[in-house]
Write a structure and sequence with these properties.
- This protein is of the alpha/beta class.
- It has 16 helices and 27 strands.
- The strands form six sheets. An eight-stranded mixed sheet has the order 9-8-10-7-12-14-16-19, with helices on both faces.
- Strand 20 and strand 21 form a beta hairpin.
- Helix 1 runs parallel beside helix 3.
- About 50% of the residues are buried.
């Protein structure tokens, strides 16, 4: 194919110099057919031949991207406008398209320098991220490709989070650089992905490509940026940019990502109607935006998308929705800003995928789990529904039956040897959970902050024999304590995740997987109370958060009793 392509191009050479002088020079991207070329191998020889022969045309035809774009198997070429049609007829060329302008999906700023703990948590709670953090999933081991305006890596929320950074030049070639943000959009989306306080997957790492200086770039910059982040072994790509309408320019790169097991998560657009490519393409997660009341944002693009070749399908987009209205995140200079837009919801969705992948799941597994577990909103523009992480994890980790390890039922357990009768009752103040009576319900109530009266009243009302521990974080009990109880209720401060070490997460997760029931409670002022539940192994865990202090003790007890009742089923 390479030789045929070269010979076919040679018939372009005898063109008269005068026609070249009279024709305007344009930049086009040439996409090739044939077997996919691995980076750094066959393409290098092809580039050498193209340069040698096309360069004879008085220097007016030349390759601008020295390495081409391996993911899409294409090349950026400067060519006289009059020769574009001839180039399209060359055997071996699949498509020729203009090096179009690309811009970010414009966000809407809501407030500047808002305190970090007063804005974004509604979105993280809304999708159920804290429940996964408590189970030990925080994005560890996952790299997210981030194509945006750059990132301020010195922000306190983002220090140590940037695994690699490059500026993508106008010809699509990467230039390694110290991280910086040419605007503020990239730092905002980066915070939602991996920020310590505002990010969905705080232990994931970012591979950031600056492809939109000041919010505007070219198709060559985006294709070059995709090449570069894929070379850095990312598992998710988050991108909030596009071109209104249906454009196939990203089709080859998306197909390559699919083959590599990389999940593309792209914004659907902020026009309110219509949709933008690549978010409206098949095989990507196109993300729309919702507010705190689960209403689709008015600006969130939506609608039917009719694709011709190479897809020939009709789609309804977006695929999913996520919080995207008044969501707080990082901006350069150590500050925070609330923004609205599908770029916001896309970063939250990509972070959600990274969170699930940190449990060892592959891109297609995560995509299907997000689809099947989404909360249906049954309104236009909501796709499959709202991302619900607890439910998605339950799909990926279904509860196993007791005899799941074999096809034969386990033999009945050997009856315990008779024990001598207890000769004296427990003394006042002695922990009661260690020696429950037959059929008795036991609970351990661990309190690290004020406002636990509702939890204690709920447990008493349900007939639990409860041991109460009022502790500081450094006094948290271990497995030797919690394993003695059927239910553990833990009342946590609002900033609990800042001091929740990995050994502690693993201990609690083991407790739940062995059949325990865990209820975490965190009071977050100004936020709507929500409860997120997930099944792990033989047990269950529930995370209750929001402005619980705004409820009376009696109302808290009612809410907690309902949650505990579901948890113990």
């Amino acid at each position: 194919m390479m030789l045929r392509f070269l010979l076919a191009l040679l018939w372009l050479i005898p063109l008269a110099p005068v026609s070249l002088a009279q024709s305007r020079t344009v930049e086009v991207i040439v996409e090739l057919e044939g077997p996919q070329l691995p980076p750094g191998q066959a393409r290098a020889e092809l580039m050498r031949l193209l340069k040698a022969h096309l360069g004879q045309m008085q220097g007016r035809l030349k390759i601008k991207a020295a390495g081409g774009f391996w993911a899409s198997q294409s090349f950026l070429v400067r060519v006289p406008e009059s020769q574009v049609e001839r180039l399209m007829q060359v055997p071996g060329v699949r498509r020729v398209y203009a090096n179009r302008a690309v811009r970010m999906t414009q966000p809407v700023a809501s407030a500047l320098s808002v305190p970090v703990n007063s804005g974004s948590n509604w979105a993280l709670q809304h999708i159920g991220a804290p429940g996964l953090w408590a189970s030990g999933l925080r994005g560890q081991g996952i790299r997210i490709g981030h194509l945006d305006t750059g990132v301020d890596a010195s922000h306190p929320d983002l220090r140590g989070k940037i695994a690699a950074f490059a500026v993508i030049n106008p010809d699509g070639t990467p230039r390694l650089s110290e991280p910086y943000d040419s605007s503020l959009h990239g730092t905002h989306t980066a915070g939602l992905l991996v920020g310590n306080n505002v990010g969905v997957a705080p232990e994931a790492r970012l591979v950031s490509a600056l492809v939109l200086p000041d919010g505007y770039g070219t198709l060559a910059q985006v294709l070059g940026g995709l090449d570069w982040v894929l070379e850095q072994n990312v598992q998710v790509v988050s991108m909030s940019l596009g071109m209104e309408g249906t454009w196939t320019e990203f089709a080859a790169a998306i197909e390559r990502m699919k083959q590599m097991g990389v999940l593309p998560v792209f914004a659907i657009g902020n026009s309110g109607s219509g949709t933008a490519s690549p978010g409206n393409m098949p095989d990507v997660l196109g993300i729309g935006a919702t507010n705190a009341s689960n209403q689709v944002a008015g600006f969130s693009s939506r609608g039917e998308v009719r694709w011709g070749a190479p897809y020939n399908v009709v789609l309804s987009k977006p695929d999913l929705v996520a919080p995207g209205v008044d969501v707080l995140s990082t901006i350069p200079g150590g500050r925070y800003m609330a923004m609205s837009g599908t770029s916001v919801s896309t970063a939250i969705a990509a972070g959600s995928a990274a969170l699930l992948m940190s449990g060892g799941f592959k891109a297609e597994q995560v995509r299907q789990a997000l689809f099947s577990s989404a909360q249906s909103l049954q309104v236009a523009g909501s796709g499959r529904g709202l991302i619900r992480l607890g439910e998605a994890l339950a799909v990926l980790r279904p509860k196993q039956p007791d005899n799941a390890q074999g096809t034969q039922p386990s033999p009945p357990p050997t009856p315990p040897a008779p024990q001598p009768p207890q000769t004296s009752p427990p003394q006042p103040g002695q922990p009661s959970g260690n020696n429950p009576l037959p059929g008795e319900k036991t609970a351990l109530l661990i309190i690290e902050t004020t406002g636990a009266d509702g939890a204690k009243r709920a447990l008493d009302g349900l007939g639990f024999r409860t041991e109460v521990m009022q502790i500081k974080p450094e006094q948290r009990p271990g497995a030797d304590k919690v394993d003695d109880f059927a239910l553990v209720v833990w009342v946590l401060p609002a900033n609990w995740s800042d001091n929740w070490p990995e050994p502690h997460r693993k201990m609690l997760r083991a407790y739940v997987e062995q059949g325990g029931r865990l209820m975490l409670i965190s009071n977050n002022q100004g936020q709507r109370p929500v409860a997120e539940s997930s099944a792990y192994g033989k047990g269950k865990a529930t995370f209750v958060s929001g402005d619980l202090g705004s409820l009376s003790v009696e109302r808290q007890a009612q809410v907690f009793q309902g949650v505990i009742h579901q948890l113990m089923r």
